[in-house]
Prior knowledge:
Elements: E1 24-32, H1 39-57, E2 60-67, H2 74-80, E3 84-87, H3 93-103, E4 108-111, E5 116-118, H4 122-131, E6 135-144, H5 149-165, E7 173-175, H6 176-181, H7 193-205, E8 211-222, H8 225-228, H9 232-242, H10 246-249, H11 253-262
Parallel strand pairs: 1-2, 1-4, 2-3, 6-8
Antiparallel strand pairs: 4-7, 5-8, 6-7
Amino acid sequence: MSTKQVGQASRLSVPSKQTGETPVQLSVIVPAWNEEKYVGQAIESLCRAAQVYARDRGCEAEIIVVDNNSQDRTGDVAREHGARVVLEPVNNIGKARNAGVKAARGKYIAFCDADNQVTENLLVLIHDHLEDPKIAGGGTWIEPAKRNFKISFFYFLWGIYVRGSGVGVGMMHCRKADFESFGGFDETIYAAEDVQLAYDLKKIGKPRGQKFELIKKGWIITSTRKIDQTPLFTMIAKLIGFGFGLQKKIRSKQYCEHWYEKAAR
C-alpha cells in the first residue's frame, strides 16, 4: 500500500465549515496521553480527510482530542492545530474514548489514535459505511509506517487473528446511538478495548442482520513505536499470554503496564 495520500502538507486547521453553521455528521475522537510529538500530525491528516469529506459529501466532521491527563503540551498542541480538546483526568484508555463520545456532536463516531495518520478518502468511506443499513460498524485496514522483521511478524500474527475472528481494529467507527446503547468502552479494560468494541458491534448487529466489516480502500498509517520499544521475546510472550485468560489479563493494569509506561496511550 502507498502512503502518498498522507504525505507532508502545510499545517491545517479544522475546515472553516466547523463553525456550527452545518450540523456535525461525523465526530473523530483522538485519545492522547503525552502525545505532543505526534498529535499535531494526526490532526493535520484528519483535517485533510475532513476537507475531502466536506467536498465530496457536503458533511461536516469534528476532531475531538481527549487529553488523558498529559504531563506535556498535548492539549496545547491539539488546540493550536484546530481540534476541540476535552480533559479526562483518569489515565485509562476506555475512559478517554468514552469522554470523547460524550462531547461528540455527530451521529457517527470514529476513533483515531494520536500517533496515526489517515488516507484522505477515509472519512468519506466511513460515512458511506455507516449509511449502509447492513453495517453495524467496522474498522479499517492498518498499514505500519515502516516494516522490518519484527513488525512484519507482528502483523502476520495479527492477520491470522483477524481472519480467524472476523473482527479487526484500525479506525473503529459506529453510530453514536448504538455505542451508547451498550455503554461504550468497558472502563475496566487496560488493553485491547478496541477489539472488545468490535465484538460488541458484532453482537448488537447480529439480530438486526447487520455485520461488522473492515474498510480496505482507505486505511490508517500507524506508528510502530510500541512494537519498536518491545523486545521480540516480550512481544511474543505477551501475545501468547493474552491467549490464556484474555478477559482477566486485559483487566489487569499490571499485565498491561508495559503499554502505559513504554508507549503513551
